[in-house]
Specification:
The complex is a heterodimer of chains A (about 525) and B (about 130). By secondary structure, chain A is an alpha/beta fold. Chain A folds into four domains: about 5-130, Response regulator (Rossmann fold); about 160-260, PAS domain (Beta-Lactamase, 2-Layer Sandwich), CATH 3.30.450.20; about 265-345; about 350-520, 2-Layer Sandwich (Heat Shock Protein 90), CATH 3.30.565.10. Chain A is built from 16 helices and 17 strands. In chain A, the strands form four sheets. Chain A has a five-stranded parallel sheet with strand order 2-1-3-4-5, sandwiched between helices. Chain A has a five-stranded antiparallel sheet with strand order 7-6-10-9-8. Chain B is of the alpha/beta class and about 130 residues long. Chain B has one domain: Response regulator (Rossmann fold, 3-Layer(aba) Sandwich), CATH 3.40.50.2300. Chain B is built from five helices and five strands, in the order βαβαβαβαβα. Chain B has a five-stranded parallel sheet, with helices on both faces. In chain B, strand 1, helix 1 (about 10-25) and strand 2 (about 30) form a beta-alpha-beta unit. The longest helix of chain B has 13 residues, at about 10-25. Chain B is globular. The chains are: A alpha/beta (about 525), B alpha/beta (about 130). The interface of A and B includes residues 297, 298 and 323 of A.
């Protein structure tokens, strides 16, 4: 825009001529008009930044020109020319938006000052406009940046698999992402600015937030923990939760909660347990079948030998064959008993008994097998243990299992020229427990074997073990309210310790105690 | 004089059973209850055939077999493996031992899985002891 463009409006042609000549001489591009109507036409065509107009004109007067010009371009500088001493008109014109006035007759000096001032104003306005435009542009860039960032964050929140729920400082939910919709079952609409977190969060979590809001302490958040929330339909949904209070300075302005859906993980875990259980059942069946096949072999062998004895009328053969049959029937019955003990709840049967006698009994039973394999069977019995009330058949069964295992541990020991021994020790522990220790110096166990000791159907004895012995022992000890411990070192042997409670009088106390421990 | 056959087994049932089968078929049974005793008896008695249980405590049947087959005086004695484990499993264990650096040994002459049929056992023995 040419700042030096001028429009002069006056009904006196002489004045127009003089002024325009003088101003052109000063370098202005001067347009002229003889009346208001013409002036507006020129103004619309040329858009001069400065208009110089006489106020008193026939037809459309200077005031009207001023008003119309200002309507068309509020930035236009309009200088009015007033009659000498007509201050009222000048003030009136200023009120209508004229930027200056000069008196008639127009003096060069006054005109130049007015034009200079107008130019200055125009200049300033131009600069201001430039600043404003710059500011606007910068503001727009910043806004755009903010919008992009917020959109990015929005997308982050929206596309997060985790449920994100934010509230204001009163707990009203103001953000509820699709992840949260998926977990809680509510839609964003149903929740945002409709519900408080108290309605969605489990009580323990809600309470933490509430106390966070109340206290204004510097508690900022909570680490991950597993909680169960209730979905819209009341169904429990397992989630991992963490949360934080949002601060502006010291002031709590809201909260945010993060929820990870654990349903899928839980389902997979259940499936894993299920498939492990199936695998365990498969293994169990295979192992049992194997063991039973061994017994069957013994029975068939026995039948064969008995038949030969019958054919030949050979009493020795008959005896040998019959022993085989008996032994294998014994194995079947042991297996069935073990399986029954393992598979059903059994109430301990408390009776008066002498624990040391039970140990003697067991040792006597195992003596032959030990002696045959050159294993010393040693008893170390606490003579102060007298008659007590315990479950003698459980004690007997446990010790028989442990001693038999101890002998096997010696048999399976590959060391050369070792003097194998198995010792059974009894001892009081406090005034309510008896400790039975079975120690061998046989093969010992690796930590790997030790870990699997009490798992079902685990055996290191190949086809010769059912993998039930220790399991049954463990179960009996637990049912009796006792405990079992194992120490073992590969190559140097093992010690199995069982501690069982006893009563000197009636067995009620023990029974109660055993029950109590079972329920824990 | 009837041929001597050595049975090495730790299971009393198998001992009585195999002993009876051997006697019924006209052989002289020799009995050892573990690999160590078995190897000693094989050296002393030079039996015509060895019936060996794969799984035994102390010196296992597998180890006794390898020692038998690497002893120049004993390696020609035919061996029948008797076992509760499948033949395939046994052979794989042998491959594994060989891979771990043991000298490779020939497969046993025969392999009988438990339960053992007395007629099958007798016929198998007859194939190697003429």
């Amino acid at each position: 825009m040419n700042r030096n463009k001028l429009l002069i409006v006056d009904d006196e042609e002489g004045i127009l001529k003089v002024l325009s000549m003088s101003l052109r001489h000063e370098g202005y591009e001067v347009h002229t008009a003889l009346n208001g109507k013409e002036a507006l036409a020129v103004f619309e065509k040329e858009h001069p930044p400065v208009v110089l107009t006489d106020l008193k004109m026939p037809g459309m007067d200077g005031f009207q020109v001023l008003r119309r010009v200002k309507e068309i371009d509020p930035d236009a500088e309009v200088i009015v020319i007033t009659g000498h001493g007509d201050m009222d008109s000048a003030i009136e014109a200023l009120r209508f938006g004229a930027s200056d006035f000069i008196n008639k007759p127009v003096r060069d000096e006054a005109l130049r000052i007015a034009l200079d001032r107008a130019a200055e104003k125009l200049e300033m306005r131009g600069q201001l406009k430039a600043y404003t435009t710059d500011l606007e542009q910068m503001c727009q860039i910043a806004t755009e940046e903010v919008r992009r960032k917020s959109e990015f964050q929005d997308k982050l929140i929206t596309s997060s698999n985790d449920g994100i729920v934010a509230t204001d400082e009163k707990g009203l939910i103001i953000l509820f992402n699709p992840g949260a919709e998926n977990i809680f079952g509510y839609s964003r609409r149903e929740v945002v600015e409709q519900r408080s977190f108290s309605e969605l969060y489990p009580e323990e979590v809600a309470e933490e937030f509430r106390s966070g809001f109340r206290r204004k302490r510097d508690k900022r958040g909570w680490g991950w923990k597993e909680v169960t929330i209730l979905g819209k339909g009341g169904e429990p949904v397992p989630v991992r939760f963490s949360g934080a209070l949002l601060y502006e300075g010291e002031q709590v302005i809201g909260s945010v909660g993060f929820f990870q859906d654990l349903r899928e993980i839980r389902r997979l875990q259940r499936e894993l347990v299920q498939s492990e259980r199936l695998a365990a059942i498969g293994q169990t069946v295979a192992r049992l079948a194997h063991y039973i096949k061994n017994i069957l072999t013994g029975l068939q062998g026995g039948m064969y030998v008995v038949n030969i004895g019958l054919d030949k009328d050979d009493k020795d053969k008959l005896k040998a064959g019959w022993t085989m049959v008996q032994r294998n029937i014994g194995r079947v019955s042991d297996l069935v008993m073990d399986l029954l003990t393992y598979s059903k709840e059994r109430e301990p049967e408390y009776r008066d008994c002498f624990p040391n006698d039970i140990v003697e009994d067991v040792c006597e039973l195992m003596e032959v097998k030990a002696a045959q394999n050159k294993i010393a069977l040693v008893r170390d019995l606490d003579p102060s243990i007298s008659q007590v009330t315990m479950d003698p058949s459980a004690v007997h069964r446990c010790l028989l299992n442990l001693v038999s295992n101890a002998i096997d541990a010696c048999l399976f020991d590959l060391s050369e020229n070792k003097e194998w021994r198995v010792s059974v020790k009894t001892e009081r522990e406090g005034d309510s427990m008896i400790r039975f220790e079975v120690t061998d110096n046989g093969a010992g166990m690796t930590s790997d074997v030790k870990k699997k000791l009490f798992s079902a159907f685990f055996s290191t004895k190949g086809g010769k073990g059912t993998g039930l012995g220790l399991l049954v022992t463990h179960k009996l000890v637990q049912e009796n309210g006792g405990r079992i411990e194992v120490e073992s070192e590969p190559g140097s042997g093992s010690t199995f310790t069982i501690c069982l409670p006893y009563r000197r009088d009636a067995g009620d106390g023990i029974r109660r105690r055993a029950r109590a421990e079972k329920t824990h | 004089m009837s041929k001597k056959i050595l049975s090495v087994d730790d299971d009393p049932d198998i001992i009585v059973f195999v002993k009876t089968v051997l006697e019924e078929n006209g052989y002289t049974p020799l009995i050892a209850k573990n690999g160590e005793a078995g190897l000693a008896m094989a050296k002393a008695e030079k039996p015509s055939l060895v019936i060996l249980d794969v799984l035994m405590p102390k010196q296992s049947g597998i180890r006794m077999y390898r020692e038998l087959k690497s002893d120049p005086e004993l390696k020609h004695i035919p061996v029948i493996m008797l076992s509760g484990i499948a033949k395939r499993t046994f052979l794989r264990s042998q491959e594994a031992l060989t891979e771990f650096g043991d000298e490779p040994v020939p497969e046993p002459s025969a392999y009988i899985e438990k339960p053992v049929d007395p007629r099958e056992l007798a016929e198998t023995i007859a194939r190697f002891v003429k």
